[in-house]
Amino acid sequence: MNDSDISAWFIGRLPADWSTAAAPEVTVDREEITVIVDLAPPVLEGDVDDAARAEGADGRIRRFREDTREQRMEIARVAEHRFERKVSWGARIGDRTALFTHLTVPTMTRLRQPERQVLDTLIAAGVARSRADALAWCVRLVGEHADDWLTRLRAAIDDIERIRAEGPDAA
After folding, report:
1. I need a surface site. Which of 60, 66, 99, 102 has the fewest CB within 10 A?
2. pTM higher than 0.85, yes or no?
3. Contact predicate 38/19, CB 8 Å
4. How many domains does the chain have?
Protein backbone atom coordinates (compact mmCIF):
# COMPACT_ATOMS: atom_id res chain seq x y z
CA MET A 1 0.00 0.00 0.00
CA ASN A 2 1.51 3.35 -0.98
CA ASP A 3 1.49 6.67 0.86
CA SER A 4 -1.42 8.12 -1.14
CA ASP A 5 -3.58 5.07 -0.32
CA ILE A 6 -2.82 5.50 3.38
CA SER A 7 -3.55 9.23 3.16
CA ALA A 8 -6.85 8.57 1.38
CA TRP A 9 -7.82 6.03 4.05
CA PHE A 10 -7.30 8.61 6.82
CA ILE A 11 -9.11 11.35 4.90
CA GLY A 12 -12.08 9.01 4.47
CA ARG A 13 -11.96 7.78 8.06
CA LEU A 14 -11.67 11.07 9.98
CA PRO A 15 -14.90 12.77 11.05
CA ALA A 16 -15.73 15.67 8.71
CA ASP A 17 -16.25 18.09 11.62
CA TRP A 18 -12.63 17.70 12.77
CA SER A 19 -11.08 20.01 10.23
CA THR A 20 -11.57 23.02 8.03
CA ALA A 21 -11.98 22.70 4.26
CA ALA A 22 -8.35 21.53 4.05
CA ALA A 23 -7.70 17.81 4.10
CA PRO A 24 -5.57 16.60 6.99
CA GLU A 25 -1.83 16.37 6.33
CA VAL A 26 -0.81 12.71 6.39
CA THR A 27 2.92 11.96 6.43
CA VAL A 28 4.11 8.37 6.12
CA ASP A 29 7.47 6.72 6.68
CA ARG A 30 8.54 3.14 7.47
CA GLU A 31 7.78 3.40 11.20
CA GLU A 32 5.09 6.04 11.62
CA ILE A 33 2.06 7.74 10.13
CA THR A 34 1.57 11.33 11.32
CA VAL A 35 -1.85 12.93 10.89
CA ILE A 36 -2.11 16.70 11.36
CA VAL A 37 -5.64 18.11 11.38
CA ASP A 38 -6.22 21.74 10.34
CA LEU A 39 -8.60 23.45 12.77
CA ALA A 40 -10.60 26.62 12.33
CA PRO A 41 -9.16 29.51 14.32
CA PRO A 42 -11.22 30.69 17.29
CA VAL A 43 -13.34 33.79 16.77
CA LEU A 44 -12.01 36.48 19.11
CA GLU A 45 -14.00 39.59 19.96
CA GLY A 46 -12.63 43.07 19.36
CA ASP A 47 -9.15 44.17 18.41
CA VAL A 48 -6.73 41.48 19.65
CA ASP A 49 -2.97 41.26 19.34
CA ASP A 50 -0.86 38.36 18.09
CA ALA A 51 -0.27 37.03 21.62
CA ALA A 52 -4.03 36.75 22.21
CA ARG A 53 -4.51 35.01 18.87
CA ALA A 54 -1.72 32.57 19.77
CA GLU A 55 -3.33 31.83 23.14
CA GLY A 56 -6.71 31.30 21.45
CA ALA A 57 -5.14 28.92 18.92
CA ASP A 58 -3.29 26.99 21.65
CA GLY A 59 -6.51 26.68 23.65
CA ARG A 60 -8.46 25.42 20.62
CA ILE A 61 -5.74 22.86 19.85
CA ARG A 62 -5.70 21.63 23.49
CA ARG A 63 -9.49 21.31 23.50
CA PHE A 64 -9.39 19.37 20.22
CA ARG A 65 -6.78 17.03 21.71
CA GLU A 66 -8.88 16.36 24.80
CA ASP A 67 -12.26 16.12 23.06
CA THR A 68 -11.11 13.74 20.30
CA ARG A 69 -8.77 11.48 22.30
CA GLU A 70 -11.04 8.41 22.34
CA GLN A 71 -11.90 8.67 18.64
CA ARG A 72 -8.25 9.23 17.68
CA MET A 73 -7.18 6.21 19.72
CA GLU A 74 -9.77 4.00 17.99
CA ILE A 75 -8.78 5.21 14.50
CA ALA A 76 -5.10 4.72 15.39
CA ARG A 77 -5.77 1.19 16.67
CA VAL A 78 -7.40 0.19 13.38
CA ALA A 79 -4.76 1.96 11.28
CA GLU A 80 -1.84 0.47 13.22
CA HIS A 81 -3.23 -3.00 12.61
CA ARG A 82 -3.95 -2.32 8.94
CA PHE A 83 -0.74 -0.47 8.00
CA GLU A 84 1.66 -1.99 10.57
CA ARG A 85 2.94 1.43 11.67
CA LYS A 86 2.39 3.61 14.71
CA VAL A 87 0.02 6.56 14.29
CA SER A 88 0.87 9.99 15.66
CA TRP A 89 -1.47 12.96 15.85
CA GLY A 90 -1.25 16.71 15.71
CA ALA A 91 -3.32 19.80 14.99
CA ARG A 92 -2.65 23.10 13.26
CA ILE A 93 -4.24 26.53 13.28
CA GLY A 94 -2.51 28.88 10.85
CA ASP A 95 1.22 28.74 11.52
CA ARG A 96 0.84 27.10 14.97
CA THR A 97 1.24 23.32 14.95
CA ALA A 98 1.22 21.01 17.95
CA LEU A 99 2.17 17.32 17.77
CA PHE A 100 0.39 15.30 20.45
CA THR A 101 2.37 12.11 20.07
CA HIS A 102 5.22 11.11 17.83
CA LEU A 103 7.99 8.57 17.73
CA THR A 104 11.67 9.16 18.14
CA VAL A 105 13.42 6.38 16.32
CA PRO A 106 17.08 5.57 16.98
CA THR A 107 19.22 5.67 13.87
CA MET A 108 22.68 4.19 13.63
CA THR A 109 25.24 5.83 11.38
CA ARG A 110 28.97 5.78 10.88
CA LEU A 111 30.64 9.15 10.45
CA ARG A 112 34.18 10.00 9.46
CA GLN A 113 36.15 12.57 11.43
CA PRO A 114 35.24 15.62 9.26
CA GLU A 115 31.54 14.80 9.68
CA ARG A 116 31.94 14.32 13.45
CA GLN A 117 33.75 17.67 13.63
CA VAL A 118 30.68 19.37 12.11
CA LEU A 119 28.52 17.87 14.86
CA ASP A 120 31.04 18.75 17.56
CA THR A 121 31.18 22.37 16.30
CA LEU A 122 27.39 22.62 16.68
CA ILE A 123 27.71 21.32 20.23
CA ALA A 124 30.54 23.74 21.08
CA ALA A 125 28.48 26.63 19.69
CA GLY A 126 25.49 25.70 21.86
CA VAL A 127 23.29 24.84 18.87
CA ALA A 128 22.93 21.24 20.07
CA ARG A 129 23.42 19.36 23.36
CA SER A 130 24.71 16.14 21.84
CA ARG A 131 25.80 14.60 18.57
CA ALA A 132 22.32 13.13 18.19
CA ASP A 133 20.75 16.60 18.59
CA ALA A 134 23.32 18.06 16.18
CA LEU A 135 22.58 15.41 13.59
CA ALA A 136 18.84 16.02 13.91
CA TRP A 137 19.49 19.76 13.50
CA CYS A 138 21.47 19.06 10.30
CA VAL A 139 18.71 16.84 8.92
CA ARG A 140 16.09 19.56 9.57
CA LEU A 141 18.31 22.17 7.89
CA VAL A 142 18.79 20.02 4.80
CA GLY A 143 15.07 19.29 4.74
CA GLU A 144 14.21 23.00 4.76
CA HIS A 145 16.64 23.88 2.00
CA ALA A 146 16.13 20.82 -0.18
CA ASP A 147 12.33 20.63 0.09
CA ASP A 148 11.68 20.99 -3.64
CA TRP A 149 14.27 18.36 -4.52
CA LEU A 150 13.01 15.97 -1.83
CA THR A 151 9.41 16.46 -3.02
CA ARG A 152 10.41 15.55 -6.59
CA LEU A 153 12.38 12.54 -5.31
CA ARG A 154 9.40 11.29 -3.27
CA ALA A 155 7.14 11.67 -6.34
CA ALA A 156 9.60 9.60 -8.37
CA ILE A 157 9.59 6.90 -5.69
CA ASP A 158 5.77 6.87 -5.77
CA ASP A 159 5.93 6.45 -9.58
CA ILE A 160 8.33 3.52 -9.19
CA GLU A 161 6.02 1.86 -6.66
CA ARG A 162 3.01 2.39 -8.96
CA ILE A 163 4.84 0.95 -11.99
CA ARG A 164 6.15 -1.97 -9.95
CA ALA A 165 2.59 -2.73 -8.78
CA GLU A 166 1.42 -2.82 -12.43
CA GLY A 167 4.00 -5.50 -13.26
CA PRO A 168 3.72 -9.24 -12.80
CA ASP A 169 3.28 -10.49 -9.27
CA ALA A 170 6.69 -11.37 -7.79
CA ALA A 171 5.22 -13.87 -5.30
Report:
1. 66
2. no
3. yes
4. 2
**pLDDT, tens digit (0-9, with 9 covering 90-100), for 120-139:** 999 999 999 999 999 999 99
At which of 103, 121, 155 does a domain end? 103
C-alpha angle 34-9-87 in degrees, rounded to nearest 5:
25
Residue 71 reports pLDDT greater than 90 = yes
Residues 146 and 71 grouped into a single domain: no
The amino acid at 57: A
Residues 71 and 118 in one domain: no
Residues 157 and 88 in one domain: no
My answer on whether 80 and 159 are in the same domain is: no
The pLDDT-based confidence of 112 (bands split at 50, 70, 90) is: very high
Q: Is the same domain home to 163 and 88? A: no
